[in-house]
Amino acid sequence: MLAPFQAFVAALTDGWRATSTSEVSTPDLIAGFTESLYDFTFNHRGLILALLAADAHGGDSTGGAKTSFAQTVSDVVARALEDAVSRGWSDIDVEVAVPVTMSLIISTALLDDWLFPPTMRPDRDRILKELIRYEITAITGGER
After folding, report:
1. 122 in the Ramachandran plot: left (φ > 0), alpha (ψ -120 to 50) or beta?
2. pTM of the full predicted structure?
3. Range of 113's domain?
4. 129: burial class by Cβ within 10 Å (0-12, 13-18, 19+)?
5. In contact, 37 and 102? CB cutoff 8 Å
6. Could you give the number of structural domains in the chain?
7. Is 110:48 a contact under the CB 8 Å cutoff?
């Protein structure tokens, strides 16, 4: 499971690296990253939950997945740090904000059934719209 996640994140950060701050606005960057990570997690949540369950029950049955996952998150942090000044992110702690933001997106996709009862479940677009609005407000102070 980790190899597809690592490849997905590498492609995402490579695409990010290939654009300049003048080509892609911060809100558009946040939206694209959020939509991609949410969809990837939602589509692979059974495997991700199995890895988390294996880790929760101890042992090294995950084959170092936790370390590999943390390194992948660190790669995203490194990319965000490269853009921090040019994007005006100097007032946030990127090394904390990025993992926290990724966990917000991932946990929302993983816990979808637990967070939203079937009778009140918002559709994907509504969930993503609110996640993105939340992130843009937190990261940029509301810049659109």
Report:
1. beta
2. 0.85
3. 2-140
4. middle
5. yes
6. 1
7. yes
pLDDT tens digits for range 63-122:
677 777 888 889 889 988 988 888 888 888 999 999 999 999 999 999 998 998 888 889
How far is it, in rounded angstroms, from Cα 114 to Cα 142? 29
State phi, psi for 28 to the nearest 5 degrees: -70, -35
Cα(115)–Cα(126) distance, integer angstroms = 14
DSSP for the chain, please give it: -HHHHHHHHHHHHHHHHTS-TTTS-HHHHHHHHHHHHHHHHHHTHHHHHHHHHHHHT-TTTTTTHHHHHHHHHHHHHHHHHHHTTTTT-TTS-HHHHHHHHHHHHHHHHHTHHHHS-GGGPPPHHHHHHHHHHHHHHHHHSS--
- Identify whether the C-beta of residue 105 lies closer than 8 Å to the C-beta of residue 76: no
- Give the closest residue to 61 by CA, choosing from 70, 73, 51: 51
108: CATH? 1.10.357
